[in-house]
Amino acid sequence: MNRTNSKHTSGLHGGSVGSRIFIVINITILTMLAVMCAFPVVHMFSVSLSNQSAVAANQVNLLPVGFNLASYKMVAKREAFWNSFGVSVQRVAIGVTINTVLTVLMAYPLSKSVREFPSRRVYVWILLFAMIFDGGLIPNYLQVKNLDLFDTIWALVLPGAVPIYNVILVMNFMKQLPDTIEEAAEVDGASYFQRFTRIVLPLSKPSIATVVLFSFLNHWNGWFDGKIYNNNTANYPLQTYLQALLANTDLTNSSEAIENALTNVKTLQAAQLFLTMLPILIVYPFLQKYFTKGLTIGAVKG
Amino acid sequence: MILPGIVFVFIFKYMPLGGITIAFKEFLPGKGIWGSPWVGFENFEYMMLLPDTKQVMWNTLFIAAAKIIVNFPIPIIVSILLNEVRSAKFKRTVQTIIYLPYFISWVILAGIIQDLFAMDGIINNLLNLFGIESIYFLGNKYAFIGVLIGTDVWKNFGYNTVVYLAAITGIDESLYEAAKIDGANRFQQIMNITLPGIAPIVTLMLILNMGNVLNAGFEQIFNLYNPLVYSTADIIDTFVYRISLVEANYSLGTAVGLLKSVVSFILIITSYKIANKYSDYTVF
């Protein structure tokens, strides 16, 4: 009796020795993976808060050694850093708005069947080809140049105005909403646009939150376009500024170069890396609860 | 409603395609795309003569294939392990932490990696503890490839579990109940129910990855590499960047880029076709 009982429950409560061992090993492995993922970020944060000599002597591992805020005070005075921070904020505000509006506007009609939206097939092919075939670095570069967008914020937000992958994601999410709700609204006299704004949009919240997160990350993390589409380093978004700083390109003016040499570059760098990452750390938990749902329904169907 | 988006797609995705013609021209900045003289396949012939080209193509294939192979099993294993966790709180905490690296840019990660993998960095200190001599990770052309693959897996494995966890959630709970009554232990349940249950999505992911064998990871490599490791780590995308924008040879850069775009296009279309046949997968 006891034997059979333990077999029955082994999957759930870990009655047998074997499954208890499994649980311990499983939790150990997963904890180690989580530590491996978190450690580099925690380490960098600790370096930014440590004193210079401790960092130079490699004494900092998990916790700060000789806690101080000197590197943050230094960064606070760096005009170039905050200038680029401003460019990034502007880019995110404009870019995410454009991305999201265009995404939902395209996703809704595309979520309809060919019967309801006869030219659907044509638009699908236009988008599919654009998504798969890449014109290449130079053709895209010359297009932005010919449109006179260099050194403007528009070079960073317009070329990627339509994130096609996000359109697909929201479209799939809208597709799986029950048709009956919209049909009932139609019977009640709701127009196409009313059905879109009052019914479909609110119901699509998880997928919209997901694409807002993706588009935020894409704009906040983007650096390559900022590097090639700006001649003036004052127009660099934050990640491009950081990229140039880490690559030791001659970005900073001479007085800042001297300042760099005088202070411990490592702690200063760590502080800037951490501040650049901070907005993501702040936004991420709020949107995480949506993105697993939005992503799995939108990206994996059948 | 759909038109505003289509206009942007046209301007920034279709209009640049005209610029591809400079792969068959000798681009003169003063004359622009249309005024520059045609040279036929001269740029492609020159590309084939360059000793770097073959190396760069091989590096791209090697790094991309290695990343696909190593990246593949880990999220599957981690999803299965996560699924076996009974405490919802522990599961959620682990998920939150392992997804995070995916959302951090390669610029920031490169800054961290350069610090951790430095000659006197934490990784080498750890190796020294075990009596292993320090390795010049970022300057040794073989160790560097290991760093590329390892950090790529580190960044992406957590996020890649999302798809498999969703597939596992979709498995009929009654199958497990029946297996338990038959006396199957956890391991047997994983092997006979969970794995077959997610097999279709595993196969689909593998097929779709095929389209990525020319994407070795520009952002990662560009932010980490240096001339010491060009021989193994220079890939098509970094090569195109240097010949186009550093050496300002637009025509040659476009030609190399075009070759990559065309091959990638064919690979992706093929993978979509196979996926469609195999599991009714449709993109739109």
Structure in words:
The complex is a heterodimer of chains A (302) and B (284). Chain A is mainly alpha-helical. Chain A has 2 domains: 2-68, no CATH class; 73-299, Orthogonal Bundle (MetI-like fold), CATH 1.10.3720.10. Chain A is built from 16 helices and no strands. Chain A has helices at 2-13, 17-49, 52-56, 70-76, 79-110, 120-132, 137-146, 154-157, 164-175, 179-187, 192-203, 205-221, 224-228, 238-246, 254-262, 265-299. In chain A, helix 5 runs antiparallel to helix 12 (205-221), helix 9 (164-175) packs antiparallel against helix 12 (205-221) and helix 14 packs across helix 16. With 284 residues, chain B is mainly alpha-helical. Chain B has 15 helices and no strands. In chain B, helix 9 crosses helix 11. The longest helix of chain B has 30 residues, at 250-279.
Fill in the keyword field for this structure.
heterodimer; A: 302 residues; mainly alpha; MetI-like fold; 16 helices; 0% strand; B: 284 residues; 2 domains; 15 helices; globular
Question: Outline of this structure?
Answer:
Chain A has 302 residues and is mostly helical. Chain A is 74% helix and 0% strand. Chain A folds into 2 domains: 2-68, no CATH class; 73-299, MetI-like (MetI-like fold, Orthogonal Bundle), CATH 1.10.3720.
